[in-house]
Amino acid sequence: MPKNRIKILIVDPDARQSTHMQKALESANFHVRLVPEPQKAVKLINAESIDIVISEINLHSDINGFDLMQRVREFSPDTRIVIVTSQAGIETCKQAMRQGAADYFAKPVEPDEILTAIREIVGTEPDVQSLPKEAKPQLDTPGGFLYEGLPGSSPLMKQVFRIAAKVAPTNISVLIQGESGTGKELLARAIHLNSRRADGEFRPINCAGLSETLLESELFGHVRGAFTGAAADRKGLFEIADQGTLFLDEIGDMPLTMQAKLLRVLEDGVIVPVGSNKPVKVDVRVISATNSDLAKMVSEKKMRQDLFFRIKGVSVTIPALRNRRQDIPELIYAFLEQMCREIGRDMLNVSEKAMNILINYNWPGNIRQLRNAVRTMAVMCDGDMIDISDIPPDIHTVLGLPNPSSPAGLAGRPLNEIEKQAIAGTLALVENNREKAANLLGIGERTLYRKIKEYDL
Asked: Where in the chain is the domain with CATH 3.40.50.2300?
């Protein structure tokens, strides 16, 4: 199979709709298979590596689309799922999103719609060279969209973009640092797309939580009989990504013995599959990422110093969302536009008070948490404007604000107690900026000062 072809499985008894989607996706060089029966789909997913499953909810079987989603997550947790259904409705959409669907469409679906959605999910075109030049993500446009899901015009993000633009055309190793959810894989993928290796594969792997045996097999491959369950030869990610890019996420969690093996591959450009004695030459650019302090891990003997220096050709740090708050409105509206399109509703606005809360919240989960919050608000909002009452309850809980979705929690409490909690939570939210707090609470600054003194805050 040619490089850069994403495998897509369409599970839908509606042959006409499936065929339309298949033609659109294949025209963009995706590899597509049609399987109308969910039982066959389950067997196929269990036997092969499928990147994306597009499924109808009503499959005319004892297995429906939601059941299929559950089984896909069990067999292949990295496979993304898109729901395309004739059972349109907000409750169906909510259930699909709760179960982890990457996207949702009500039939009939225009072929261009599904193609656009799949491209956004994949994060890359299956054949970059077939795109017009201007369609490739442009790293040298500070403040613009570096990549879907990673916009930003703050000075900190402009600096990230400038570094990425400089290293992208080279073969130098890159170490991306940042908290969980900041978009490290998005940046790595964008660097790949703007490199001379854009025709090759981009393959990510998370080094955390994998045993040494499994990680070695994933990276270097194995031959038949190498271990129990190795029924056939299997290529590892280094071989699959030959002439392309391998993204090693959370490299600080890699076992020390695996670090030594990785270093040898990076220095020699040769891998040996598990159970084999035949070396395989590979040419792969490695981009690594971590949310840990690798220099400290080196001093603690948890990270090999030689590997640290080898992967740290150029280091770039993606700032936490709380350190670039001016980007939050841009991100919110970008995610809102995407989500409203997915669920088929008119574009929503965000009230000033709600936006102020979202801007001032610390977002410990960064972009990933913000995207999920926007998804929830877009689905749950009853009107045409997101207000404070639509903000997810967990954010209210963290801020110490009353949960607007649980009025019973306020019943029977003294009004002054509720008022004190609201003022204290708002002051914490805006880091004791009294002007901002007064604006959020809808009262004058003098009134706020008086309340602070009254409640001894």
From this structure: 7-129
Contacts of 362 (CB under 8 A, 6+ apart): 322
pLDDT of residue 68: 87
Q: What is the pLDDT of residues 347-395, one digit of tens each?
A: 999 998 889 889 888 898 899 899 989 998 998 888 999 998 888 877 8
Residues of the chain falling short of pLDDT 50: 1-3, 124-146, 405-406, 408
Q: Nearest 5 degrees, angle CA 376-CA 392-CA 401?
A: 170
Domain 137-319 has what CATH class?
alpha beta
CB 445 within 8 A of CB 435: yes
Sign of CA dihedral 404, 406, 408, 410: negative
- What CATH number does domain 7-129 carry, 2.40.50.100, 3.40.50.2300, 3.30.1370.10, 2.40.50.140? 3.40.50.2300
pTM across the whole model = 0.60
Rounded to 5 degrees, φ, ψ at 373 are: -65, -45
User: Exposed/middle/buried for 431, CB within 10 Å: 0-12, 13-18, 19+?
Assistant: exposed
Phi, psi angle pair for 231, to nearest 5°? -80, -15
Contacts of 451 (CB under 8 A, 6+ apart): 419, 423, 443, 457
Strand order in the sheet with 103-106: 31-34, 7-11, 52-55, 80-85, 103-106
For domain 326-455, say whether CATH 1.10.8.60 is its number: yes
